[in-house]
Structures are given as C-alpha cells and as structure tokens.
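Q: What changes when copper (II) ion is included in the input?
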Amino acid sequence: MSTRLPRLHELASLSAVVAIAAATVAAGQLFARASAGRPRVASDETLREPSVISSRNGVLRVALNAAPSIIDVAGKRARAEVYDGSYLPPTLRVRPGDEMRIRLVNALDEPTNLHTHGLSVSPRGTSDDIFLRVAPGQAQEYDIRLPASQSPGLYWYHPHSHGNSDEQVRNGMSGALIVDGLLDPFPALRNVHERLLLLKDIQIDGGRVAHLGIGKQSVRTIDGQMNPTIVMRPGETQLWRIGNIGADLYYELSLDGHPFFVVARDGHRLARVERADTLVLSPGARAEVLVQGGAPGTYVLRTGDIDTGPAGNTYRGATLATLRVEGAPEHPIALPTDLLPVEDLRPRVTGRRTIVFSESRDGNSFFIDGKAFDMSRTDQRVKLGTVEEWTIRNQADERHSFHIHQTPFQVAEINGVAQPADGYRDIVDVPIGGEVKVVIPFTDPNIVGRFVFHCHILSHEDRGMMATIEVDP
Ligand SMILES: [Cu+2]
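A: The predicted holo structure follows.
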C-alpha cells in the first residue's frame, strides 16, 4: 500500500497501471501455457462474440433496456450506461424484407432513442425516426420494416438523441445488425466460417466510464475484449465482418502477414474483391473482408497511429487481437475477382448541391453550412425520384466524416480525383480543406420523410455538425 496520497497525474495514469497489471497477469498465463507445450501464445482469451437474436418467420422481436449497470469490459469492471447490462448488446440478424419489432425501455436519467444505421427504412412514425425522444422512465415500441431490396451486410444500431449520442455510444450503447445473404450468390464462399469483430473504445476512470478527450487513454476493444485470440487453420478462408461501432475514433487496421480481401463496405457488396493491406474505418464505418490463413504461427491485428489534423486529435495505435493459425491445413478456396455488377449512378444525376462542414475558431462549435443543428428547421428538401450529386466541402482544420441516413451513396470524387464505381457506402471521410463528391439516390419510396445527415464523429454531431433533410413524394 502507498503511504502517501497519489497526485493528480498519477490518478490520470491509473487506468494505464491497471492495463499494465492485466498485461503482467496475461504474461504469467502465457508462460504457463508455453511451458505446457504451446509456444508463443500472445493472448489468453479466445474471441467471444455477442449473443444473437434472429428473426423468425420474417419478424424479429427484441427488448432493449437502457440502464446504468456494472459492466465487465477489457478485464475491468465499470459503471456504464448500456443495453441489457452488457457492454456488447445482442447482434440482431434479419433478412431483406423482414420486420423488426423493438421495445426500447429507457431507465437512464436522460433521453435516448434508437437509430438503425444504414438501413433504407422509413424515417417516419415508429420506424427509424431519430426525432423521437424517449424520456427517462418511458418505453417506445419501434416497428421497422426492411425493404426486400435491402443490401445484405453489416449494419448497426445506436442511440441518436441529439446531445446524448456521443456519451451514450461511448458508454457502450451500440450493437451489430446483420442483414443475411452477403455471400449467398457465390457457392464457393457460402459456407466460410464467419466472425463478427466489433471495434469499440472505452475510457474508464474511477470505476466509471469517463470522457478524457478523444483518444486519450482509450482502451481499444474487439467484442469488448482486449487482445483476444482468433483461431484459424492454414489455408482456411474466413469472413470477418468488422464494424467501427464506437463514437469518435478512426481505425487503420492491418493484420501481420495477411492481406484483407474486401467484399463489402458499409453493408454494400463491392463489384470486385478488393485486396487491401490496410483498412481505414471512420467512426461508424464497416468492412466485410475475407481472410485466408497463412503459415502456422501467431499474427497481430493492429490499428495504426491516427492524426486527424491540427484542430483534431492524435492517438497512438494499439494491438487489437492475435490471429493464431494452427491445425490441419486446408486447401485454400480460389477467391473470386468479380462479385456482382454495381450500377454507376453518375449518368442519372438530376441535380447538384454543395454542403459545407466548418467549425468555430475555438473548436467547440461545429456547423453545416454555417449553422449549428436545429431539429425544427428543414435544411434541405429533395423530391423523391431524384438522384443528386452533393459536394461535401471541409473547411475545418481536421478530418470530418459525412453520413446520411436512409440511403447509401456512391463516392464519385475525392479532392477532384474520380473514383471507380465499385460500390456504395453510407460514410465517407472528407479530407482537411478538401472536398468529396457523392451521388445520392433519393429513389426508394421507403425513405419519404424527414431525416438527417451529419459528421459521424459523434462529439462533432452532438455539438452541432448535423442538418435535416426532407424527401417529398
Ligand atoms: Cu466531424
């Protein structure tokens, strides 16, 4: 025991000390394992994915209880605002055309609500309406109907109550939503082993979730675990569904000795399999990738150092997981080069507009077109059936990311460089002082109504970087 009171800076590094202590324990276990004849085991815990709730006969029924709870995360206990007492709420699995009946109970002391990120569903009534506010002590029944045309892939759900989104997602209120069928058209890939890797970061101070500033002392987790082990056979092909479902952090992923073969971005299948050594995931973005086991051994899945600009944030990289390749080798599947064609929306553009992201000089207020978010104002109006090219301009000294609800878009240009028509996304990074052109189809009758677009760094969104749009029939 210490004989003096710790000083402030020592308290600030308490979580680092806890992390070192945890690492020391892990190292002890590693030694025990190595002496038992299994050398070079880098981490002790096997990846544990969240529980799954699937639709039955076209309907998914689930209750989510938002309440302050004591959670276990990354080997620690902390008080946090979460769903169902868990840092990692259930994964919801549905098929295109299904209906989701979700009962959200708010036992927090502040408003909340529910958003299904990336789904082309109605923004009205009790569907994906982020203007709904579920007051403390209240419950809300959501009824969300997926169109039959919903693209199969990885989506996610989280609160979208303006002013509370960042804090609630940082506490752990976010989970995966999988629309099944991504690899169905490709018989050779239909039975590959699938893994869900959900990236979240947490700051714990004094036994509770804290906000120490973006990226400061953030513990990076996969499925709520620190450096879990993923096992595969040499030559085996696995589908990794990777989602950045944290609030504010970027990830730049790489896996030692193994390229990623990207098949989908933000729940939308690409036209071709894209080989990538690193994967950049903005807050809210997803990538679904095939990984083929290399030679037996252990390999690190890591995220690199991030610098979002002079007015932004810097944070160091981290080890996220350890891949252990072992066991009987499998003959590797020949991966396809082409998937299915994706329509280039550029020839269909019917109108253009420009959207400007900026912030105040002190960096505390964030604007779209010079205005902070006001939910009672309608900022953009479009007609159903139009396909628009939007230029998103970033006038700030840090990166921002553009996200629009209810519809994906095609990234047409980044800083004047034309992009291949290889797939759709629902999030795109906008470079500092630069611009991105996106083509947005407002063509699905489902999306008639009022919704929002915003920066998906949630602390920016909560501080004003969001605007409303109405799609009129
Ligand atoms: Cu931003």
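Observations recorded in class: The domain at 346-472 is CATH 2.60.40.420 (Immunoglobulin-like).
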